[in-house]
Backbone:
């Protein structure tokens, strides 16, 4: 069967399209894996990688800058993750940078997030360096704690419901107070009496203050208050005089000690 020229053209087009798709796929995959860029490798050690897989992205400042190259189990509580990064970001990543595991969106793939560092070191990372790792939260432990909190909240809610039921049925002191009109009236009467007593005390205090002021201006008692005032002033004056004497004595003692010291220095 002879092949016509139109069939040859179709075959040629299919071959060309296939090659274009192949090269495009190689370019996209190579660009994602940084195959066409100069790269360097760093690592981090985690207790749990939470589903991180080889080939997942490495993100720095919100930009994909590399991939997870390899994941190796070192021990039952240690997992080493090797990262291949674009060489262009090396100058921005410092020795004290940290690596952590995040998610690409709420339910997206796991990825590695690099913090730039620079707080305690300004030296940039080198090929093969191991950065400090921030271990992800243990979701199972968090869910366990939330479950216990929910159980406790349910118990508290049940207890409060029982208390409110007892109050509604008139049980307990509060229930009897709410449902017993006589107790409520007695309580109101007690509160009213207490208010009246407080008012009377306040009024008596004002009256006593006014009586004292009047007594001070009274001719017969004026001498008594003057004596009290004079005694108070004399007491203050004595304290001031004694303080002055003590101060003068301390100054004299200091001068005397200084002279004796000067005399001793001259003799030496």
Residues:
């Amino acid at each position: 069967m002879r092949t016509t020229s139109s069939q040859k053209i179709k075959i040629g087009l299919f071959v060309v399209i296939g090659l274009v798709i192949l090269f495009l796929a190689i370019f996209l995959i190579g660009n994602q894996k940084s195959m066409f860029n100069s790269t360097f490798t760093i690592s981090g050690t985690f207790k749990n990688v939470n589903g991180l897989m080889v080939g997942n992205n490495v993100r720095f400042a919100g930009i994909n800058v590399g991939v997870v190259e390899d994941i190796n189990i070192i021990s039952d509580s240690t997992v080493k993750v090797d990262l291949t990064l674009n060489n262009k970001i090396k100058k921005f990543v410092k020795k004290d940078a940290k690596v952590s595991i995040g998610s690409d969106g709420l339910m997206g793939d796991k990825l590695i997030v690099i913090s730039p560092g620079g707080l305690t070191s300004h030296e940039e990372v080198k090929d093969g360096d191991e950065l400090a790792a921030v271990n992800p939260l243990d979701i199972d432990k968090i869910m366990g704690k939330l479950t216990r909190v929910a159980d406790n909240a349910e118990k508290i809610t049940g207890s409060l419901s029982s208390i409110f039921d007892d109050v509604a049925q008139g049980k307990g002191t509060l229930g009897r107070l709410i449902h017993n009109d006589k107790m409520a009236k007695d309580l109101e009467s007690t509160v009213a009496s207490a208010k009246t007593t407080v008012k009377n005390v306040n009024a008596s205090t004002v009256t006593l203050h006014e009586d004292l002021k009047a007594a001070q201006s009274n001719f017969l008692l004026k001498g008594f208050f003057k004596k009290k005032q004079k005694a108070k002033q004399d007491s203050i004056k004595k304290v001031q005089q004694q303080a002055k004497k003590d101060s003068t004595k301390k100054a004299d003692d200091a001068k005397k000690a200084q002279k004796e010291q000067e005399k001793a220095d001259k003799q030496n």
Q: What stands out?
A: The chain has a mean pLDDT of 76. The beta strands are 39-46, 57-60, 63-75, 78-86, 98-103, 110-115, 130-134. Residues 219-267 form the longest helix (49 residues). Residues 57 and 67 are 5 Å apart (CA to CA).
